[in-house]
Specification:
Elements: H1 13-25, E1 28-32, H2 39-55, E2 60-65, E3 83-84, H3 89-94, E4 97-101, H4 113-118, E5 122-127, E6 138-141, H5 148-160, H6 166-179, H7 190-200, H8 206-214, H9 219-232, E7 233-236, E8 241-246, H10 248-253, E9 276-282, E10 287-293, H11 299-306, E11 310-311, E12 315-320, H12 324-346
Parallel strand pairs: 1-2, 1-4, 2-3, 4-5, 5-6, 8-9
Antiparallel strand pairs: 7-8, 9-10, 10-12, 11-12
Helix pairs in contact: 2-5, 2-6, 5-6, 6-7, 6-8
Length: 347
């Protein structure tokens, strides 16, 4: 039987009312997304920020992120309102309500985790990542959702649909567009397209969103991508696997700005027969590993088991506390054969 989708997620009205009671009695409301934010995280924060600013103009609404923004969201109208990193710390003490969006664990706020856990605020998660940590007062979690903004659309619609405007719809559409890879990922289903269709009714500038997100790269970023394709992309055909690694020195050579690596992990998947890819990015204290899959490999489980990370079946990530080349070697020589062996057993 074909699964029937509605445009909205089944958020209980009692849940909305419980949150509304806390919000209406609060003076300061903090809205924060995850570390290394992608457009869905930024869009989730800003869509709720604009919504609550309209609903409660007398309240102190604080949009926040643990660290720097990707360059492809600099065009967002309210991007300069966002508090970053240590700027957020005082608000964990003063906020009576904290919304945690596009994250499922306290550790996903990075170095701000201790302040989050110490906060006595009423906490709400709105997210689409699997296996959420139970540390909040209200959990709104739908792992089947293509993006967090898709869930936020239901939330704000049930909270007060009259306040949804072109700006809020723009943020929600941007999160949905990017987290589905322009609706190419398996996560994009009938509901995703229904939400997108509804958002278009708010006269959003779809062409501008696509232009700003996908066709607004710097010259240095394009040179970096050329270098990655020619020098850094490696293929292991027996595993249908491709990977890319980038050192800090290589990134500095191309004047790297945060977000310049966006979509690099997907490049090997454009090669015929490659269904599993990874990208290793050296950071100051660790190596960030991004994983993608178009086949049967559940990269969310791979990230959780081997990388102290997590994510979805087809998109996930984690970290390896090793030098870059050691991390790559361990993944290729130790982890990859185990993944492949597990796949063979499951088959």
């Amino acid at each position: 039987m074909t699964k029937i989708y509605t445009m909205f997620y089944p958020i209980n009205q009692n849940t909305i009312d419980k949150i509304k009671s806390q919000v209406e009695s609060a003076h300061t409301i903090l809205i924060i997304g995850h570390t290394s934010p992608d457009p869905d995280a930024v869009s989730s924060v800003l869509s709720l920020y604009v919504f609550f600013k309209k609903k409660y103009p007398q309240k102190n609404i604080i949009p926040a992120l643990p660290d720097d923004l990707p360059t492809n969201v600099f065009w967002f109208e309210h991007v300069n309102d966002i508090k970053l990193g240590q700027q957020v710390v005082p608000y964990f003490k003063t906020a009576q309500v904290i919304f945690l969006v596009d994250l499922n664990e306290a550790k996903r706020v990075g170095e701000l985790e201790q302040y989050l856990r110490q906060s006595s605020a009423f906490k709400i998660i709105i997210d689409h990542h699997p296996e959420p940590e139970q540390f909040v007062d209200v959990l709104i979690s739908y792992p089947e959702a293509a993006s967090t903004t898709e869930i936020i659309f239901t939330f704000v619609h049930k909270y007060d649909s009259s306040l949804i405007d072109k700006q809020i719809a723009t943020y929600i559409f941007t999160g949905l567009l990017t987290d589905t890879g322009c609706f190419c990922h398996d996560s994009a289903n009938e509901r995703s397209f229904a939400v997108a269709s509804e958002l278009l009714k708010y006269k959003i500038d779809k062409n501008r969103i696509i232009q700003e997100i996908y066709n607004n790269y710097s010259y240095d970023r394009m040179r970096l991508m050329g270098y990655v394709l020619v020098e850094k992309m490696k293929i292991i055909p027996e595993y249908n696997f491709g990977y890319i690694s980038l050192s800090l020195e290589e990134m500095r050579r191309f004047n790297y700005k945060y977000g310049d690596h966006e979509n690099f992990v997907n490049l090997p998947l454009s090669i015929k027969g490659i269904t599993f890819s990874a990208m290793f990015m050296e950071q100051e204290k660790t190596v960030r590993v991004s994983l993608r899959s178009t086949g049967s490999i559940d990269v969310g489980m791979v990230a959780k088991k081997y990388l102290n990370g997590g994510g979805h079946k087809n998109a996930a990530g984690g970290n390896m506390d090793l030098p870059l080349q050691n991390a790559v070697n361990k993944f290729i020589n130790e982890i990859l054969p185990k993944i492949f062996e597990n796949e063979q057993v499951n088959d």
